[in-house]
Amino acid sequence: MPSKQERFRIAVLDDYQNVALSLADWSVLDERATVTVFNDHLSDSDAIVERLQPFDIVCMMRERTPMTRTIIERLPKLRMIASTGSRNASIDLRAAEERGVHVIHTGYTSAPTIELTWALILASARNLLAENASLRHGGWQQAVGDDMTGADARCPGSRQRRRRRGADRQRLRYEGDRLEPESHDRAGG
Fold first, then answer.
1. What is the pTM of this model?
2. What domains are there in the chain, each with its CATH number?
């Protein structure tokens, strides 16, 4: 690591939404580090190495830019890789360990992914894209859409797995803001 007089150089990669500096208090590093954010993405290994040569620490936004053995071995100043999420399959952990590069991971919350999944399910059931396009072009509602109340929520293959275990499928009841398992009596199973 740099001496007390020398400042750390930190690279934040692939911040294409330009949000990294607003999601944490980076001011605690003002006295000790210089943070450089890259909003673009490089896929060429040589270009990645050239860009990261002066940096001690690389902060990665998930798996977009791989940190392969070839890249890690060509970055002599690299001392730490920090990645969002609880793991990152695009980091060669063995190569990092062999070079003495510490790899750390941040925490995460799955709520946004779950919320987006439900938004997509509801948009599909209500034919939202076509309805929106119709309204934007001066039209009106084109279809009624599916009612989600009492609808089954199944994963592909789940019925076959349950049959192998000798269990009936479980039906989930949508109650406007949550899914609840239905009893066998109510679900008819």
1. 0.64
2. 8-105 (3.40.50.720), 111-187 (no CATH)
